Each structure stands twice: as structure tokens, then as C-alpha cells.
């Protein structure tokens, strides 16, 4: 049984006087214990909404509808009441956010922001909590942790802040960690360090990690399984190797083609995807990616393409998939 | 959990399909948002009615507002002021004049008090604030000195209780409606000065000013051509809100006996102040002008708040 | 921090100096003089000149100002022209009433305003939200003195729930120590006197609180709404913290910054409202006295009272700045 099993997750936002928006539209994926799963896509594809829905952090108010199920052990994260969710959040499932500066409370010291999790979920207070917090900061590679605990977020560097956020997330050794673009706001050199830190933490503690990113480089370096999202639906899902070796959906190849490569010929052009995320077709009318797709055929429009599963659980949602003549490596 | 509607709006917008993406100016966009805001429309409706009454009031008033037609029937000393009747819908005032006519005619004076005192405050305040802001933003060492002297003076004005300032102005000029206008106007000077200066200093530090400076545009031209127009939004919003407070403050000064001692020309603030003495006999005499003042002030406030929201760049997402 | 406070207090000196000069010139320029107030219209020119001479008003302005400054440095505010009593005595007798009233109003405004604004923001779009936004918009537009009269008419004259005037029932014969009547009652253990003084404060306090309350509700709501959309609130929620910690430590603490600034600004403006409220409720504070002092051209009273009030105003703002830096480490002062 997987650690987390998301089935048919859908999230719609309805705003007065405006068309309802299906931000997430029937997304399914699962995460095994200790596994690193990537959710990849451009901004606006629904990946952040997915993570917030799993954390139960989408506002429960009129206009927001969440459907499907997300089984985490015996509990459905989408249907659990707020009180139980509070116990789960931070203890069993923790989250790391994109922008470390805005994600830290600017007016209270780092120390309190770390110890409050320990107090809430592990009952640690006073000197015990401080000692544990010091240890945590040490583990995430923050030098001189005793001093840092007393400092405020604005006194820390960007990388340091993200490390502090990670420390808070792993404070209770959660079974599942969700990282939403954890390196996007950081300098390139720091990005690698943070990824390295995350990889180490996951490996040592056996925590499963859902990595949300638009950066295929991050995926290539970390993830065991990859789900590519477009306009709220999974368009391709595979283990890491088959995905990179044999991408089937034109969107995936497009994402891969947009990454500059050292081994490409000097005159070779980057394959940027045409248009922007705003040029979508509503899924019921056909493939949402069709307006931007180079391999579009008549069958793309009319009805939504189904998710077909190929060999090695490599699934894709395309009527005219890319195919390499080379057979799929095992 | 809770209201995180802003986040939602942003998420919704990110995931939303095509939307028109015209580059519209701040003011056009603000105007569009004000037009779509129901509270702003209520405010505008109130103000349109008020201004209409102020214009046509003297013609539709059934009686002369200064005619003591009911003098014989009113004995305020004995607590007799006749109330509403078929001929006099709102009854007589304490001197036997037709209350409804006085209210209709009084609207004009009330509007004038609001507009003139706001204009006084706006003009002086914008002048002081504009000079200070331009000096602080672009003037180097001398400019900063000018700015700090001007702002110290403004701070001193702020440290004085506004009502005392107004009362002492009234003492200097003698009680009259003009006095009230000047006093109320002067009291709002520091607010306008601080607002405009603050906005200008913020603008002066922005990138486009740096760009213009590096292109060799003259400093005075930058100040007048770029910084000033871009700093006006908060001042205009404040002016709208001040129209409301001016009418209320004018009523307060009338209440303290600084208004026009001759009640021949009716004005709501003065009517309200005078009616306080007859509250036990005919509370209506106080309530009508009070409602007029409250509703009018509400109209200006609603419009001002809607404009503030529409012009707030933080809410313009 | 201490250096910051000392620096601000030193800055107070030139501000007060400037204010005293402006005020001095301004007051002397008012038409008429104390002699008119004393003699009325009938005094002969000789008599007027005699009085001006006795009061030292015939000398050049600069010398008069020098004399005023010399006294001022010894904290001697002089004698009132109309009551012939020490200005300081008059002040200490009347100011506590105004302070009591102002504090009552502020307690009402803050105590009701912040929770209401918070709830309105958390339940955005609910009935409570619309009601408090609408109520606060109307609250700003009601003239204070009119509200005072309405409250008095309803709650004291009709329902007889509250006293309609004064600061305390004189028949109680309460002991005076500080002239803060509530405090005096507590200090002397005259509980009924303290309670009665408190009772007298309620209606004028509510009237005076109306505008600050409306403003505090609005600013709290806006500020909390802004904080609610911040990422760190989401972080706090993702940690599974309980509602109380999120509310106190993460939302309100951040939302307090603009609220504190506004409270500081309001405290200055409250004094004007206090004058009106005191008039309606015949509440003996500095309001009526100052107003009379202007019409009587009682220069020593005006100079003394306004200077002390200005000092208070500056001190309140200093307090605001200090608490601001206590709340937000980013603006922490050295």
C-alpha cells in the first residue's frame, strides 16, 4: 500500500461574476514510503494548488470545491476535519514553501518559529525544546545555531532562511514532505546546496518527498517518479529514466527541449514551447495543450484524450505521441 | 480554514484562461473599478442628490427660509414649537420659520462650507507639502534643510489640538461662516502637506526618476512633470474624505458658538447646533439637519474610500 | 533603545521652543486683550492701559517672551488672569478629568475595535463583516456632540441608566488625592466613589470613543486581511499550530504595526473631541476652561495648557514609536 494515494483530485474556484476555474482536474498519483515523486509543470498548471489541497490549506469557503480522495494511511486528507488535520500537519505531513523570506514570520525570532512545532507536536518546552532546535539547525547545516536561534528572518541569508524552514518541516520527522519549488527563489549556487540537503535528509530519515517544480534539472537529480502536469491534469507519468529517455507527450518533450544543453551543437536552436499557459483549450473540448502543440492532429480537438498506460507504467495523455525508434530501455 | 481570498484570487487568476490584458492607465483602471464598486455608487448617488438639492433648493423650498411665518404659534420658552402639519411638513423651527425650507436652502451653504474649507486646506497643504517634497527629493543638502524646516512647522501644527487651533482662529476673525471655513481649512493643512510630501519622497526614490535624472532631464521638470502627477492620488482621496470631515467639524464649531451668529442664512451645522437647546421640546429640529450632515458625510466617505481602494496599487492585482 | 528615547526627548526641546514662539506671537495678535474681558465694553482707555500695565502687557513682545521663558524654565507657568490662581494648580485640577475621559474612550475603542476588526477580517463577507464595515463608515460621519446629546437623551434622561452630567456625585464627599476620581476612590478604598466616578465616565466615554472605534475597526480589519494573505500565516498553518498561537503570534502580532500607528495619531485628535463631549456632559475637564481662556484672552493659561498638552502629544507619539520597534525587529532602534 502506498504512503499517499491521490485519486481524482480536483479543485475548482468559483468567483462571483466570473467563470469557474478548474485549477486541478482529476489528478491521480501515489507516493511510496521513502520515495521522491516529482510534480512538474509551468506556473499555473495546478501543482501548487495540489499541494495546498493535500495539506488542507485551501480555504474552506464558498467557491472552493475539492473532489477526489487522498489516502494517507487510513485517513483521507481531503475529508478529514480541521482538528485532525492540525495534528497531522507538521507531524506526519510537512511542507516547505517557495519564498523563504515571506514564508517566515518577520517579527519573531527563528528559535520560536522552530520550537513552536516541537512544543505543539512533541510536547517539548523550555531548555529541551531549545536544545532540540539547536540540533535541528545543526542538521540542516546552519552554522552557529545557538546564535541564529535568537535572530530574526531578516538577519539571515536566503539560503539560511530556506534551511531554517526545512528545519521546521523536518522537526517532527514527518513521513511525507511536500516541497513547493523550494529552490526557485534562491541563487543558483545555493539551489544546489539546498537540493543536496533535501536529498540527504530524505535518504537518512526515509521520509517520502513530493517535489513540486518547473525545473526538469531538479527532477533529473532527485526524483524516482515524475508526473508532468498541464492545465490541471497529469499529461505524462513515468519513472525517471523512461521519462527522460523516451518522453511521449509533446509537452514533456517541449519542457525538455527548453533546457539548454551543453552537448547541443552550436547553431542548434532551443525548442521553446509556443505561446503561454493562458492559451489553453478547456479539457472537455479536447487536449488543453493542442493550441501550443507542434504535433497537433484533428483528433486532438473534439474530446479529451485519455491517459494511456504504456510499458513500465509509463502513462501519457496524447493521441499523437512522440515515439523514438529505439525501444524503451528497461 | 479562513479567509485567504486574496491568495485564491491570485491562484484563480493564474489558472484562469484568457483575460483581456490591455495596458490601461492607473486612472482609467481606477475609474473602472470605482464604477463597478456598489458602495461607491451609493456614495455617488447620495452626492448627486445632495448637490441637486444644493442647486435647486432655494427654488423648490415652499416658503422663505427667513420668514417668521409661525412666530405667533411658537413659544419656545414655554416649550411650544408646532411639529409637522399639512402646510409645514417638518414643522417650524424655534423662531417659527418653515423647517423644510430651511433644510432645502441650507444644503447649499453646507456644501459651500465643505468645498471651500477643503480647498483652503488642500491649496495651502499641497503648496507646503509640494515644496517640501520636491526639495527633499531632488534638492540635495539645501533641499533637505528646507524640507526639514517646513516639516517641523507642520509637526508643530499637528501637536496643537485641532479644535483649539480652530477656536483661536475664530477668536481672531470673529464668529462667522467664513471664519468656520477658514478654521476648518487650516486645521486640515498639515494632513495634506504630510501626505503629498510623503508620496513625493517615495516617488523621488523610484527607478523612473533615477532614469530621468540619468537622461539629463532638468530637476524642476522631473519634479513638476513626473513626481507631482504621480503623487496626487492619495491627496485627491484625502480631499474627498476631508469634504466629509469638514462638514462635521464645521458643525462642531457652530456648536461651540463660532458659526454665523445671525441665523438668517440657514446652514445645517448651525441649525443642528441651535436645535440642541430645544432637544426636549422638538428633537426633530436636531435630527433633520443631523441626518442631512451624516448622510452627506457618508456619501463623501463612501466615494473617498472606494477611490482609495481603486487607486491602491496593492489591491490592483 | 535608551539612546533613541533620549535623542527623541532632546528633539522635543527645539520643537517646544518653536511652538512657544509661534503660540506667543499668535495669541498676542488676537484682537482685544484680557482687559476687555475684565472690564467689558465700558472700561475707559485709562483703565485699560492701567490693567495692561499691571499685567506687563505694555512692554515689548520680546521682553514679555523672555520673562515667560524665564518662568517656564523654572516650571512656573504663572497665574491665571481670570481666576487669579496658579496655572499649574488649575491644570492639575482639570487635566485628570480629561485624561480619565480620554483613557476610557481609548479603552472602549481598542477593546471593542481590535476584536471586532479581527473577526470581521477572519469572516470576510459575513454579516458581521458587512455590519462592522458599514457601522464604522457611519460612525465616522456622526458629529461627536450630536451623538453625545442622543446618548444623553436616551440613556440618562429617558432610561435613567446613567448620570447625565458631572464627574461624580458631589454628595458622596469623596476624598481628593490625585484628582483622578476613579484612582482616588481606589486609593482611599471609597469603593462607592470610585464606582460612581466610573459610572459618570461611561456615556461621555462612548460618545468620545465613536470615531476612534470606527477607525480602529477599519484599520484592524484591513491590516488583518493583509496579514492573512501573507505566506508566513500559511507556514504557521502548515505546522499544525493551534488557532490561538496562529492568531496571537502570527496574525495579530504582525497586524499590530499599522494599528499602533493609528492609535497614536488618534490620541492627539481625541482632545478635540473631549472638549465637545465635556461641554455636553458638563464634565469638568480642561475643555470648557480652555475655551473660556480663549475668549478671556487668559494668556498664561493658554500658553501653559497648550505647551503641556503639546508635550503629552509628543510623548504619546514617542510611546508609539517605542512600541512599534518592540513589535517589529526590522525597525528596531539603537
Automatic annotation (TrEMBL), chain A:
Gene3D superfamilies: P-loop containing nucleotide triphosphate hydrolases. Residues 6-256 form the ABC transporter domain. It is a peripheral membrane protein. It comes from the Bacteria. SMART domains: AAA. NCBIfam families: oligo_HPY (TIGR01727). This is Peptide/nickel transport system ATP-binding protein. It comes from Actinoplanes xinjiangensis. The lineage of its organism: Bacteria, Bacillati, Actinomycetota, Actinomycetes, Micromonosporales.
TrEMBL record, chain B:
CDD domains: TM_PBP2. It holds the Pfam family BPD_transp_1. Its main location: membrane. It is a multi-pass membrane protein. The chain crosses the membrane at residues 40-61, 111-137, 149-171, 177-196, 235-258, 286-307. The keyword Cell membrane applies. The keyword Transferase does not apply. It comes from the Bacteria. It is found in: Cell membrane. Keywords: Cell membrane, Membrane, Transmembrane, Transmembrane helix, Transport. Residues 107-304 form the ABC transmembrane type-1 domain. InterPro entries: BP-dependent_transpt_permease, MetI-like, MetI-like_sf, OppC_N. SUPFAM superfamilies: MetI-like (SSF161098). One of its GO terms (cellular component) is plasma membrane. GO terms for biological process: transmembrane transport. Belongs to the binding-protein-dependent transport system permease family. PANTHER family: D,D-DIPEPTIDE TRANSPORT SYSTEM PERMEASE PROTEIN DDPC-RELATED, OLIGOPEPTIDE TRANSPORT SYSTEM PERMEASE PROTEIN APPC. This is Peptide/nickel transport system permease protein. It comes from Actinoplanes xinjiangensis. The lineage of its organism: Bacteria, Bacillati, Actinomycetota, Actinomycetes, Micromonosporales.
TrEMBL record, chain C:
It comes from Actinoplanes xinjiangensis. It is found in: Cell membrane. It is a multi-pass membrane protein. Residues 95-324 form the ABC transmembrane type-1 domain. The chain crosses the membrane at residues 9-27, 101-121, 133-155, 197-217, 257-290, 302-327. One of its GO terms (biological process) is transmembrane transport. The lineage of its organism: Bacteria, Bacillati, Actinomycetota, Actinomycetes, Micromonosporales. Its main location: membrane. GO terms for cellular component: plasma membrane. Keywords: Cell membrane, Membrane, Transmembrane, Transmembrane helix, Transport. InterPro entries: BPD_transp_1_N, MetI-like, MetI-like_sf. Belongs to the binding-protein-dependent transport system permease family. Pfam families: BPD_transp_1, BPD_transp_1_N. Gene3D superfamilies: MetI-like. This is Peptide/nickel transport system permease protein. It comes from the Bacteria. PANTHER family: DIPEPTIDE TRANSPORT SYSTEM PERMEASE PROTEIN DPPB-RELATED. The keyword Ligase does not apply.
